[in-house]
Every structure is written in structure tokens, then in C-alpha cells.
Amino acid sequence: MSEVDELKAEIKKLSAKAMQAKMDLHDLSEELPINWQQILSVAQRAHEAFETLESKRAELNNSSAS
Q1: What are the contacts of 56-62 at 24+ separation with CB within 8 A?
Q2: Residue 28, CA distances (Å) to 11, 44, 45, 54, 55 in order
Q3: The model's pTM
Q4: Can you tell me the distance from the alpha carbon of 35 to that of 29, in angstroms, rounded to the nearest whole number?
Q5: ∠ Cα 3 63 7 (to 5°)
Q6: Does the keyword Coiled coil apply (predicted)?
Q7: Around Cβ 20, how many Cβ atoms within 10 Å?
Q8: What's the start-to-end Cα distance of the chain, in Å?
Q9: What are the sequence ranges of the domains in the chain?
Q10: Residue 66: which pLDDT band, with cuts at 50, 70 and 90?
């Protein structure tokens, strides 16, 4: 498997993880004020998931450009 194919597979997994984090944040927001204490931790997980996804997409773009 080439490096580009490996990055694409990893991006697919990271995208699913980011979408789940997004849904968790959305669900939490709809339940407020219940579980308001979890806002920071859920938001941090979503932030980290999307940050990692964006980083890997940039890595893929750089690999494809080479």
C-alpha cells in the first residue's frame, strides 16, 4: 500500500471520528442545561479530532503535490 493510500485510509477513519465528535457536541447542546459540566471536555475532543483531520488532509495534499 502506498503512502498516499495509507493517508487516505487514515483520513477516512479520522473523518468518522471527527463526525462522531461533532454529533456528540450537537447532542450535548440539545440537552443543555443537563450535563453542562461536560461542555469543555466534549468540545475539546471535537476540536482535537478536527485538528488532527485537517493536519492529515494537509499532509495528503503535500504528498500528492510531490
Answers
A1: 56/7, 56/10, 56/11, 56/14, 57/11, 59/7, 60/4, 60/7, 60/8, 60/11
A2: 25, 13, 13, 23, 26
A3: 0.89
A4: 9
A5: 40
A6: yes
A7: 13
A8: 17
A9: 3-65
A10: low
**pLDDT per position as a tens digit, 30-49:** 999 999 999 999 999 999 99
One of 1.10.287.660, 1.10.287.130, 1.10.540.10, 3.50.50.60 is the CATH number of 3-65, namely: 1.10.287.660
- H-assigned helices in the chain: 3-31, 39-65
CB count within 10 Å of CB 57 equals 14
Residue 36 corresponds to which amino acid?
A: W
